[in-house]
Amino acid sequence: MGCSIVAQTLSALNIQSPEVTSKAAPPGDELNDSVKALSEKLSEALLNIRAKEDLVKQHAKVAEEAVSGWERAENEVSVLKKQNDALGQKNLILEERVGHLDGALKECLRQLRQAREEQEEKIYEAVAKKGCEWESKKSELENKLVELHAQLQSATDADNSMLAEIRSKLDAAEKENSILKLKLLSKAEELELRTSERDLSIQAAETASKQHLDSIKRVAKLEAECRRLKALARKGTLANDQRSGTASSFYVESFTDSQSDSAERALVIENDGCKSVDSEPHHPDAWASALATEIGHFKHERTLGRSLIVPSVEIDLMDDFLEMEKIAALPETNSGSDHTARVDDREATLRDELEVMISRTTELEEKLKMMTAEKVNLEFALKVNLLQIQDQLIEANEAKSTVEAALEEANLKKAEAESEIKVMELELETVHSSISRLEKEVEKERNVSREAVAKRDILEAELSRLKSDSQVQRSAIIEEFRINQDKELAVAASKFAECQKTIASLDRQLKSLATLEDFLIDSDRPVAVL
Predict the structure, then answer these.
(1) 84-113 pLDDT, tens digit each
(2) Among 191, 345, 414, 529, which residue is least crowded by beta carbons within 10 Å?
(3) Cβ(249)–Cβ(5) under 8 Å?
């Protein structure tokens, strides 16, 4: 870009000074060729630099991904080791429990055998006893059967309640596990957002630092140009008849270009500028206008390329420098002391603006440090949250495993209870066989009891006959009593009717007496008045 600016300035000089171009045409062509060659080399170097920067960024991304993958793998390995240790401990505990259960099972089988033998002995003793005791033994066996059924029902109810409780715990553990997984996903999304914000802040800080370096370079160039202008102004005060013109060329250097190449290009451009000034002493106004257009174009390009870190200050610096160029290009109408004073004032203002830019860059650096500290704090908090969530997930898995172990233990207990129930059913079958033998004996006694029942029926028939005779006699007596009672009621009703008749006649007599008294009272009232 600097080479294009130099080429534009040279073309402007060639257009506005035909006398000089007619005198020095061949050097200008060589200079243009050299400038074109240098611009091509510069563009190739920039392309190479950009390609290398892209490769560096890609390598950095790959390295970051590899480091993150390695960290994840280490975390997974540590988690798997912990799980393996926990499973080993659980296996040891389960083996110990299995040993205890085997011993308990053997003891239960021994006790069951002893109980079965004792029960068989009792059954044989009960069968050998007298026939009069079979009813009591049968009732006892029925009571035992009821108790066994009750125990079986209670055992099944307990197993069902335990299974329901274990299933509810398992469902709660699964729900908690799903909630923890959702929390982990939300934390991962938050981590991605924070990392994206961190990357954006880092990019902004890098662009700010690059622009800060560019501004420092421009300020240094402006100071050098100011010194050169001051020197030219002092020369102009010594020679009042001559007009001084200055030409400045701005060019942008890349960060990776060598200093030797940039110094050589600067010397070549300054020598060309001095030659053009010496060859054209009578056209300072043309120089000023060309530099004004060049600086305006440069300002426009810089304002389009930069969106951060005090663009207004850089524009002010460009304006001040342009004004200084115009002042230096104008004819010396005032004294030399006034001109130097103006230059000193401009230099002071430029220094003040440079200090402002430096202070702003320091503020930006402090903000960058604060952002990095905040990023570190956020990463630490995120790691702590991830560790807590992992611990909660491990606890949930352990709870789930304990619930599964309890469920397996309950299933084993249920199987043991079922085996005991089968043994009891076999014992009940033996009891039923003995009961069938006893029932045969009972059948014999039932035949005897049937004969007794027949005799009882005869007696009951006689008793029923006697009851029927007594019932007939009782009904006859009741009928006679009812007839007598009806007769008495009829007599009482006739007497009651006669009483009602007498009461009605008395009522009529009383009413007639009342009307007579009223008549007498009415007949006595006029006499009393007279």
Answers:
(1) 788 778 778 877 877 777 777 678 778 877
(2) 529
(3) yes
d(CA 263, CA 335): 36
Q: Which residue has the tokens 């009672």?
A: 485
> Please, which residues have CB within 8 angstroms of residue 412's CB and are 6 or more apart in sequence?
101
Task: Give CA angle at 256 (251, 262), nearest 5°.
Answer: 40
| C-alpha pair distances (Å), 248 with each of 20, 75, 195, 245, 275 | 19, 62, 46, 10, 13
How many other β-carbons are positioned within 10 Å of the β-carbon of residue 2? 20
Q: What is the pLDDT of residues 388-433, one digit of tens each?
A: 777 877 887 787 788 778 778 877 877 787 787 788 778 777 777 7
pTM for the full predicted model? 0.26
Q: Which residues contact 294 (CB under 8 A, 6 or more apart)?
A: 5, 8, 9, 12, 249, 250
**Which residue pairs from 44-51 have beta carbons closer than 8 angstroms and sit at least 24 positions apart in sequence?**
45/254, 45/256, 45/257, 46/254, 49/254, 49/256
* Separation of alpha carbons 315 and 93, rounded Å: 79
Measured between alpha carbons, how far is residue 488 from residues 272, 474, 480, 491, 514 in Å? 168, 21, 13, 5, 39
Read off the pLDDT of residues 318-343 as tens digits, 9 standing for 90 and up: 555 555 555 555 444 444 456 567 76
Q: Coil, helix or strand for 256? A: coil
Query: Is the sign of the CA dihedral 282, 288, 294, 298 positive or negative?
Result: positive
Q: Quick one: the chain helix, strand, coil %, rounded to 5?
A: 90, 0, 10
**Buried-exposed string 481-519: b where 16+ CB fall within 10 A, e elsewhere:** eeeeeeeeeeeeeeeeeeeeeeeeeeeeeeeeeeeeeee
Residues 338, 346: Cα–Cα separation, whole Å: 12
Tallying the residues shown for the chain, one arrives at: 530
Q: Can you tell me the distance from the alpha carbon of 188 to that of 192, in angstroms, rounded to the nearest whole number?
A: 6
Gap between the Cα atoms of 461 and 433, Å rounded: 40
Block residue for tokens 């009342």: 514
Tokens at 169, concatenated: 């715990």
- Report CA-CA distances (Å) from 221 to 236, 287, 325: 22, 19, 14
Distance (Å, whole) CA 466 – CA 445: 31
Residue 437 CB contacts under 8 Å (≥ 6 apart), including other chains: 127
In contact, 282 and 244? CB cutoff 8 Å: no
> What is the C-alpha to C-alpha distance for residues 185 and 157, in angstroms, rounded to an integer?
42
Which two three-digit tokens encode residue 462?
Answer: 């006689």
3-class SS of residue 132: helix
Of 210, 213, 222, 250, nearest in space to 352 by CA? 222
Q: Name 256's Cβ contacts closer than 8 Å, sequence gap at least 6.
A: 45, 49
* Of 399, 402, 408, the residue nearest 177 (C-alpha): 399
